[in-house]
Amino acid sequence: MRPLADYPDAALRLFDRPPLPSPDALDDIYLIGICGKGMGALAELLREAGYAVRGSDAAAYPPMSTRLERLGIRVLEGYDAAHLAPTSERGAPSLTVVGNACTPTHPEAAYAREHGLVQTSLPGALAHVFLQQRRSLVVAGTHGKTTTTGLLAHVLREAGRAPSFLVGGVMAGLDRTCAVGRGPHFVIEGDEYDSAYFDKRPKMLLYRPTGAIVTALEFDHADIYDDWDDYRAAFEAFAALVGTYAAGAPGTLVLNGDDPHVRALADHATAAIRTFGLDAGNDVTAQHARAGEGGQRFDLVVDGATFAEVFLPMSGAHNRMNALAVAALAIAEGLTPDEVAAGLATFRGMQRRQEVKAEVGGVLVVDDFAHHPTAVSKTLDAVRERWAARRLVAVFEPRSNSSRRKLFEARYAESFDAADAVFLKTPPLRHNDDPADFLDPQAVAAEIARRGTPAAAYESVDALLPDLLANLRPGDLALVMSNGSFDGLMGRLLTSLKE
Question: For residue 359, is pLDDT > 90?
Answer without folding.
Answer: no
